[in-house]
Every structure is written in structure tokens, then in C-alpha cells.
Amino acid sequence: MTLKSISKSPKRQQEEKSMYVLKLERCNQDLLKLREKLCSYVCEPTTYNLFERIEILRNRLETMRDSNLNIMEGIKKDADVLYAYFAKAEQNLSDFNSLYKAIENYVSSARPCK
Question: Which domain of life is it from (predicted)?
């Protein structure tokens, strides 16, 4: 669903709000799982480069989580600027996919060769 497909009817707007809140809640649950993965023993950095990468990833996780919470709060409260929040939600969901891939790359490089 894109911003172009958003209808202006109140019922449709409510459906859009619910959909984005649900997607962002799921995204935050996934962020918690990724955080747990990064905090696991297997992902302990063994080089300075890995240490820098894990710190950047952890910061991105926290920033995204906070941003998701702010967007969800805004969607639930501010009906006047709803479309701006929808755009932010779409951007965060896209950014989540990028972050997920970066964390998976880190995890695969942090694991010792078997």
C-alpha cells in the first residue's frame, strides 16, 4: 500500500491507521529480537571493526525503535497530519529491511568459521 492509495474517507483512514500501527508494532517486536541476537554470545565482536559495526547497529536499532514509537503515538493522536505519519511509517518500514540485512551480515561475519 502506498500513500497514493490512501482514501480520504474516515472509515478508510481508520483502517490505514490500524494497518500502520500494526506494522510498526510488529517491526518493534522484530527489533527486540534483533537486539537479543546482537547481544548474544555468538555475536560478540572479536575485532575493532566488528566492535564499531555492532555499536552502529545497536544505535540504529534504538533510533528506529524510538522513531516507531513516536510515529505510532502520532498516528493514534493527530488526525490532521495523518498522511505525514503514514509517509514516516513507510520510510521506517523500508529502513527496517535495510537494518535487518545489515544485522544479518554482521552476524554472519561475527560467527567463527566452522
Answer: Bacteria
